[in-house]
């Protein structure tokens, strides 16, 4: 089933929040999810230890450059969706995960620093495509945006992406208190109390629209010849 990786060569781009929102939305639809927490900060592993984790979500935190490819491919044969939260840098774990992804989501905040970090991942994807000899579908998700104001910096990033012809999700992830509370109290948006969280309904709507766009793009590609060779070798 689909393997969806979140990557940006700059930390703090909002990829962990984006990965967790997608995972909880998918689980709320009754689908099983395996999350690979490849970020050294282990925020998703911490979230998994809090109360309220959906039973449909499993989290894997023990990952090495040598094992991650096989781990992801094995999980994709069992879970409905595999989601990978990658480290905010370029390394072998990132490259190996991207090479077996059906979709790579590059979260970018409205800043030139984030755009440069995202550009590094897009360049890496282009290099990997030549190595694995197939296209690696990818898109950009704008994160931590302001619901009321489009900043000058965000407009510059949007123009940069448009010029490059990069696929950008129509639904940005808006900065919401409900998203931060997931990492403090656990669970998903569905289990949060609207009496204690401002604009929870808007957060739920935003997350649902974001997830719908991702899932629309995340079609499973036919397993390639290299995959069969890899499985025999392992």
Give the arrangement of secondary structure elements:
Elements: E1 3-6, H1 15-28, E2 33-37, H2 43-48, E3 57-60, H3 68-76, E4 81-85, H4 92-99, E5 103-108, H5 112-132, E6 138-142, H6 152-164, H7 177-185, H8 200-217, H9 225-233
Parallel strand pairs: 1-4, 1-5, 2-3, 2-4, 5-6
InterPro entries: DNA_Partitioning_ATPase, P-loop_NTPase, VirC1
Protein name: ParA family protein
Pfam families: VirC1
Q: Give, in spatial order, the strands making up the sheet with the most strands.
A: 3-2-4-1-5-6
Care to count the β-strands?
6
Spatial extent as radius of gyration: 17 Å
CATH class: Alpha Beta
Tally of alpha and pi helices:
9
Characterize the biggest β-sheet. Answer: 6 strands, parallel
Q: Secondary-structure element sequence?
A: EHEHEHEHEHEHHHH
CA-CA gap between termini: 20 Å
Mean of all residue-level pLDDT scores: 86
Total tally of structural domains: 1
The parts where pLDDT drops under 50 for at least 5 residues are none
In helices, the fraction of residues equals 40-55%
* Beta-strand fraction estimate: 5-15%
**Morphology call:** globular
What is the CATH architecture term? 3-Layer(aba) Sandwich
- Per the CATH scheme, the topology name is Rossmann fold
The H-level CATH homologous superfamily, spelled out, is P-loop containing nucleotide triphosphate hydrolases
- Counting helices, strands and paired strands, the structural category is alpha/beta
